[in-house]
Amino acid sequence: MITFDEMGDWLDEIAEQFPQEFYTELNGGILLLPEAMPDPEFPEGEMYFLGEYCHDELGRYINLYYGSFAALFADASDDELYDELYTTLAHEFTHHMESLAGERGLEIKDEIELEQYRETYREDP
Fold first, then answer.
1. Residues paired with 54 in a beta bridge
2. Which helix (H) or strand (E) segment is 59 a member of?
């Protein structure tokens, strides 16, 4: 697993690949935080949030969680990890763009998928 600083460098490189329009009103920017963000509805180590788009009193910003990537992708190749980081940032940018447009399509899809994971988990012994 790469270090926090290395992932920060990757994130900077990836972020530069997105069009400048994606940064409209993203006044809090993109933050890489060291902690993991486990889903409290699952046992420890079962489910983590890799990132989240935030729109609150502090503004609009994207949090990505290094600890969650480390927990889920400890055995992944650098290429796999880089691709997952790119995909996660693209996902959070989609939330941002939808928020600016007053849409919630991806948010609703995420809620449905997360509930399906929870249902599957509750059904498994």
1. 61
2. strand 59-65
The Cα-based distances of 36 to 6, 39, 50, 55, 74 in angstroms read 17, 10, 8, 20, 13
pLDDT tens track for 27-76? 999 999 999 999 988 888 889 999 999 999 999 999 999 999 999 999 99
**d(Cα 120, Cα 125) in Å, to the nearest integer?**
10
Give the span between the Cα atoms of 49 and 68, in whole angstroms: 6
Q: Please, what's the b/e burial string for 69-85 (b: 16 or more CB within 10 A of its CB; e: otherwise)?
A: bbbbbeeeeeeebbeeb
Instruction: List beta partners, residue 33.
Output: 65
